[in-house]
Design brief:
Number of helices: 12
Strand order of the largest sheet: 2-3-4-6-5
Largest sheet: 5 strands, antiparallel
Structural class: alpha+beta
Number of strands: 13
Shape: globular
Order of helices and strands: EHEEEHHEHHEEHHHEEEEHHHHEE
Oligomer: single chain
Domain PI3K/PI4K catalytic: 87-419
Radius of gyration: 24 Å
Region (Disordered): 1-71
GO molecular function, one term: 1-phosphatidylinositol 4-kinase activity
Low-confidence stretches: 1-59, 271-275, 289-295
Membrane topology: Lipid-anchor; Peripheral membrane protein
Pfam families: PI3_PI4_kinase (PF00454)
Mean pLDDT: 79
Length: 445
């Protein structure tokens, strides 16, 4: 049974989670996180899909990709759509346990990675046979009870959102996008309907013009910008062991590493746990200035540059900490970089944001606006995801304050911070934290 206490850090005092709450008579702002009381008649309907109220009344195409706040991303998606119209289709990625695709532009250059919702590891149209075989042979071990199934595309976009809010700049920009392509995995009915509509448009144009859409239906999924020049972290880490880096370059690597450990730890990214070091990429540029070599034999060597990219964030935002069969330890804890305390630079960057209640509240509302796009969105599940994230924020804040190492961070007790039931006339929200005492059957410490 979990131990429950007022909101305090498992080790020392922590950040304050008392947020100002608007008056009960004031109108609710769009996207605000609302807690449904136990006696509310709508609580029994929480598992029903929540759709936008104006979806049926909006004259715009709901599958249109519009990003007014990010024109650069919108332009890249437009290039992808134009390439598909020119029959330069996305190419399926062989690696992984789900259907993911390299998206190209009109010149055939890879510009993004698209992961449809229906082709996720536990999706009905997953083209990879590994998960189908697991479901067929081991149904009792199928899925993960700590994750919301078939919402990996939201986790990908959510991880990018958290990264941008914290200004870590390690997760390539990722957003929810609608795309249709012949190379995607569709069922037979959709393909027959698409061919029938095309045939009707060719043979009987008057009838074909009445169709709302000609072709395959678009798929919703995550679209992540492609990063060039990056390789698996294992490749560079093995090379750095044989050829040690200079002090300044090694400091760059350490700073990038702690950025990578902070973000995934915040939203409990499990791909960092089970995927080894191939779920984060490194780019190592060691430029040499050869201009002065015409008149002299001297070569000017510039400072090497190291950049890190955290990809594969589809297993983020769990509804609870793993407590069933096995734990999911972060693979990077065995690296030497995980034993170095958090630097003052990363503390100055992240800690002021995590200590600001308004920042945390804005982050929760932004995640709510993102996650509610899913037709199967469940507000109760979302509150559980946020409760786990608050606990991770609590532990990360404490680790930064005490200059702990990333290894010490993952060894801290798992915490869940939930919204407490407060009187209706209360001026602020109160929170309670619970320490998870139940451990997985197989653990690593």
């Amino acid at each position: 049974m979990d131990e429950t206490s007022p909101l305090v850090s498992p080790l020392q005092d922590s950040i304050d989670y008392n947020y100002c709450q608007s008056d009960a008579t004031s109108p609710r702002t769009p996207g605000s996180v609302v807690r449904v009381s136990a006696g509310s008649p709508g609580r029994s309907r929480e598992r029903q899909p929540l759709l936008d109220r104006d979806r049926g009344n909006s004259p715009r195409d709901p599958h249109r990709n519009e990003f007014p706040d990010d024109p650069e991303f919108r332009e890249i998606v437009r290039k992808a759509e134009q390439a598909i119209e020119e029959e330069i289709f996305p190419e399926r990625i062989c690696q992984g346990s789900s259907g993911s695709y390299f998206v190209k532009d009109s010149q055939g250059k890879v510009i993004g990675v698209f992961k449809p919702k229906t082709e996720e590891p536990y999706g009905q149209l997953n083209p990879k046979w590994t998960k189908w075989l697991q479901k067929l042979c081991c149904p009792c071990c199928f899925g993960r009870d700590c994750l919301v199934l078939n919402q990996g595309y939201l986790s990908e976009a959510g991880a990018s959102l958290v990264d941008q809010k914290l200004e870590l700049n390690i997760v390539p920009r990722t957003k929810v996008v609608y795309l249709a392509s012949d190379t995607f995995n569709y069922n037979a009915i959709d393909r027959v309907k698409s061919r029938g509509k095309r045939l009707a448009l060719e043979k009987v144009p008057k009838v074909g013009q009445r169709f709302h859409r000609i072709g395959l239906p678009p798929k919703v999924g995550s679209f992540q910008l492609f990063v060039e020049g990056y390789k698996d972290a294992d490749y560079w880490l093995r090379r750095f062991e044989a050829e040690p880096l200079q002090e300044n370059t090694n400091r760059q690597l350490q700073l990038q590493f702690v950025r990578e450990t902070g973000g995934p730890r915040l939203h409990n990214q499990e791909h960092r746990c089970i995927g080894g070091n191939d779920n984060w990429l490194l780019k190592y540029d060691c430029p040499m200035d050869m201009e002065g070599k015409r008149d002299t034999d001297w070569v000017v060597v510039k400072e090497p540059i190291i950049r890190l990219a955290a990809i594969d964030n589809g297993l983020a935002f769990p509804i609870k900490h793993p407590d069933s069969w096995r734990a999911y330890p972060f693979y990077w804890v065995w690296l030497s970089q995980a034993k170095v305390p958090f630097s003052q630079e990363i503390r100055d960057l992240v800690l002021p944001k995590l200590a600001d209640p308004n920042f945390i509240k804005d982050l929760e509302e932004d995640l709510y606006e993102l996650f509610k796009k899913d037709p199967g969105f469940d507000r109760g599940q979302f509150h559980k995801q946020i409760a786990v994230m608050r606990g991770q924020i609590l532990n990360l804040s404490q680790a930064l304050k005490e200059s702990k190492t990333p290894l010490h961070l993952v060894q801290m007790p798992p915490v869940i911070v939930e919204t407490a039931r407060a009187p209706q006339r209360a001026n602020s929200e109160s929170y309670t934290q619970s320490f998870q005492s139940r451990k997985p059957f197989f653990t690593w410490w």
